[in-house]
User: Which sequence fits this backbone?
């Protein structure tokens, strides 16, 4: 697949705009220009200069209309989220974002939609100094694919495989807000207008914990971003590390609004529905003091401990086992 945003060898008209005109107008003009980009948009390949002594961290995510977002979602929020979910993956490895590729499939070249999509995407790109260096465009059902690149010294890169028995388990921020907002949007869990307004930004415009991930270098032993739900994503750390864990329901961080609705829908919104894009990570007991000194603005909460016995155990405030009705999102799981 070609790397820079370019045509497919011919000028394909989508609505009244050619593919090349679309690229020049909406994507070639952008607010970020990095010195480590020798050639960006406009050639057959991008030419990039990774810094000496740094490993290149690469991730990609795909957002499909009707699967990952509703067709009538605000385009600016969609542009933001499409990039944010990739930056969240970089954050989970402690990487500093640098470049990204955009592969965009459009049903038509709607100039108003594209202007708003680019506004949301490039506002976030400017915030993290990450430059669009290429990709591809085509016509079809609305689909957004982004591949993001960042830098991290290999010796301090955060991995899923480093957790050890006795490590404490932490999460940044709060969990469940995005899930509750989605339930409201789907008509499954009505909220007041003020409650929905307070939560919907967590769903539509998640904040990638890039600075927090970089700060955890040399402190965290295992890390992952929470995209498919805490239980599923923590489960990846446990599997890769060959350990188990115990987490406590009363330690799961909830926003005040989310906490008021837990009794209606159970803990699954915070445990399993995903879309949180917070970091889940492990820290040895002797290093918790170093973690406390970081003083993350988003907050950080200890929710449990890594254990040698395989499996994930959840206990409530009375010490009784809690068994969730499901444990996380899976695109190919059979519907129940």
Assistant:
């Amino acid at each position: 697949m070609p790397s820079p945003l370019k045509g497919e060898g011919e000028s394909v008209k989508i609505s009244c705009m050619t593919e090349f005109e679309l690229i020049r107008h909406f994507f070639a003009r952008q607010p970020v220009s990095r010195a480590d980009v020798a050639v960006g948009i406009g050639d057959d390949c991008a030419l990039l200069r990774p810094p000496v002594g740094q490993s290149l961290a690469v991730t990609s995510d795909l957002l499909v209309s009707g699967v990952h977002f509703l067709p009538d979602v605000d385009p600016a929020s969609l542009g933001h989220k499409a990039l944010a979910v990739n930056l969240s993956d970089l954050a989970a490895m402690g990487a500093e974002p640098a470049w990204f590729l955009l592969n965009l499939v459009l049903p038509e070249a709607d100039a108003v939609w594209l202007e708003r999509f680019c506004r949301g995407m490039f506002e976030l790109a400017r915030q993290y100094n990450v430059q669009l260096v290429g990709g591809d465009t085509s016509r079809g059902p609305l689909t957004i694919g982004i591949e993001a690149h960042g830098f991290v010294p290999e010796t301090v890169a955060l991995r899923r495989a480093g957790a050890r028995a006795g490590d404490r388990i932490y999460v940044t921020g709060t969990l469940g807000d995005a899930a509750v907002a989605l339930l409201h949007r789907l008509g499954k869990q009505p909220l007041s207008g003020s409650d929905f307004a307070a939560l919907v930004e967590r769903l539509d415009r998640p904040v990638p914990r890039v600075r927090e991930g970089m700060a955890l270098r040399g402190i965290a032993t295992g890390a992952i971003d929470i995209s498919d739900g805490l239980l599923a994503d923590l489960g990846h750390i446990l599997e890769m590390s060959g350990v188990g864990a115990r987490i406590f329901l009363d330690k799961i961080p909830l926003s005040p609004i989310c906490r008021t609705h837990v009794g209606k829908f159970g803990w699954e919104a915070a445990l399993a529905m995903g879309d949180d894009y917070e970091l889940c990570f492990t820290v040895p007991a002797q290093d918790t003091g170093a973690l406390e000194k970081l003083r993350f603005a988003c907050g950080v909460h200890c929710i449990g401990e890594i254990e040698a016995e395989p499996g994930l155990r959840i206990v409530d405030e009375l010490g009784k086992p809690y068994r969730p009705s499901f444990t996380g999102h899976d695109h190919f799981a059979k519907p129940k």
